[in-house]
Amino acid sequence: MTKKRKINKLNTYSIIISIILGVLTLLNIYSVIKINVFPFKYLILFFIIFILSIVLIVFNFKLNKKKKKARITLCCASTILSLIFLVMFIYFNKTFGFLNKIMSKNYKTENYIVVVNKNSNYNKINKLKGKEISYVKTDIYNIDKALETLDKTITYTKAQKDDYELLLQELYDNKTDAIIMEESYKELLVSEASATKSLYTTFDEKTKVIYSFEVKIENKNDDIEKDVNVSEEPFNVYISGMDTYGKISSISRSDVNIIASVNPKTKQVLLTTIPRDYYVQLDGTTGYKDKLTHAGIYGIDKSQKTIQNLLGIDINYYVKVNFTSLIKMVDAVGGVNVYSKYSFSGEKYTFKQGYNKMNGEQALEFSRTRKTLAGGDRARGENQEAVIAALISKICSKAIITNYVSILDSLEDTFITNMDQSKITELIKMQLDDMAKWNVTSISLDGTNASEYTYSYQHQKLYVMIPTQSTIDNAKQKINALFSGESLESSYKEDNGNAATVSTKTTTSTIKQETTKQETAKTNETKTSVTTEKNQNTEAKTEIDTEEIKNEQTLKDEKQSTTEKQEDSSSACSTENNNCSENTSN
To answer: CB within 10 Å: which end of the chain, N or C, has fewer?
Structure first.
């Protein structure tokens, strides 16, 4: 290749890379303006980089084509800057896509099922053409919209029933061909059936679902959203944790109910946990009160308004998450260090008192466990607050920069909020500007255990928690103090970086397996010893020795079995006493 051809190739590359750099520069300028999350000091930095890009482009076109060394230097600089701009654009585009999707999820999903007798010949929805499908009409669900949706699938006869007990009884008695109901309410009826001895005890045994579909309902935020300047004024956020996996828009019982009171000026967050079984008057209802967790099956707005009435506060925004959300968020930030007041074990993991380093699955079990905690649901609420505090700490640290894309990926389709895009960008901009640490304080409401009739299940009394007014008054006082700018004491010790590693729980079966391995090893050693001795002793003597070893091993096994039975009996007694102290029904 001649020298002239090499220069021509270099000049061609110079033009191409200049065009690429120019396009990427324009895209990044547009992105920075569009997403509007960067504070002024970052905008100055971007401005300097964009000016440098323009200078390189101009020099690439103006430079004398014969100045090979200078052109190579400019091409290298342009290539490096183009790669940087490409990475920046990916980050900006990810941010814009994430923010743009938030408001598109402002709806709830009601999931309906068509149910028939298990021994019937109906196995597909089209088999019910011309048949009778019964339903219960209430002010809770949009059953009319569900029936309209089903009308588009088949033609059938509609039959309205007075209540859900009669609905199921007529299905069992073959007085109706099928029934239609919202799935989360069915789950509620089934979960309470064992305690109430209702017909729904045998629902799963005697019925089968042959068709399911969803109805999307737009959330009405006009009467619950109360906008503020989130970077300047204090505000309240209702965090609702649903007891489901999968689609976040599906309505379900609200298993976690936490009010996060935020003061952006003093960098303080107050987390107030309300027990799931709190016996409260659901907003817009009369008659029986209900468990707070049941409010979730009527929609996020019902839960939010109910809590507003309970605490006498304005809740500005809500965030709805489920089990999937928590696992993804914790894993995306590379795990979190969570403070535990107690040492305890869940189903799979054992947690130590102090800080524990957890992945998503471990954080979920830490948040859900209550039966092995002395405080039951109260202690579980404290653990849920501890996980939230750990997430706040991690997200507000430098980890948000190194794990930025994975964090946004994890948050996609895992939460719903009525906080619009502009408010979220204000919060991001504020945090990027000062990267301040936040002080987190946790409190919880309390009450006394009782059995009462509930609005959602009026056939028999259920376990509830009667509110203790003094704890409600304390929460009101703390929220007002935070809003007034007072400093609250942090509920969590400083993380010294020596968080314990969460261990897998050692079960009884695991202990037995280890014991068996040890006994087998000892037996093998004995057999080896006997084999060695065999060369020196007679065959008869060896048989006697071996028999003695077997007898000795049998005695050991019997002793071990007796010990394990005693331990199992003691464990069962302890578990039974724990269950007696707090009703575990939903």
So the answer is: N
